[in-house]
Amino acid sequence: MAYKIDPDACTACGSCIDECPVEAISEGDVYVIDPDLCTDCGACADVCPVECIHPE
């Protein structure tokens, strides 16, 4: 299982990208998590201020 960012709620604040230990998150208008790299650690979800990151 991997985490996924809700593109309608993501504000691209950058909080999650610094927390990812495997660099699975890509920057853009909204951020995206690569499911092949995600280790399901949940670090990104813990720091998301708008709570838009959830397990798939």
How would you explain this protein's 3D organization?
The protein has 56 residues and is α+β, with helices and mostly antiparallel strands. The chain has one domain (3-55): Alpha-Beta Plaits. Helices cover 18% and strands 18% of the residues. The protein has a two-stranded antiparallel sheet. The longest helix is centred in the first third of the chain and has 5 residues, at 15-19. It is globular, with a radius of gyration of 10 Å. The mean pLDDT is 96.
User: What's the N-to-C terminus distance?
Assistant: 6 Å
Tertiary shape: globular
Unreliable stretches: none
The CATH architecture designation is 2-Layer Sandwich
Question: Short summary of the structure?
Answer:
This protein is an alpha+beta fold and 56 residues long. It has helices at residues 15-19, 43-47, and strands at residues 3-5, 25-26, 32-33, 53-55. The strands form two sheets. It has a two-stranded antiparallel ribbon with strand order 1-4.
What are the defining features of this structure?
globular; two-stranded antiparallel ribbon; Alpha-Beta Plaits; 56 residues; two-stranded antiparallel sheet; alpha+beta; 18% strand; 18% helix
Please specify the SSE layout and strand pairing.
Layout: E1 3-5, H1 15-19, E2 25-26, E3 32-33, H2 43-47, E4 53-55
Antiparallel strand pairs: 1-4, 2-3
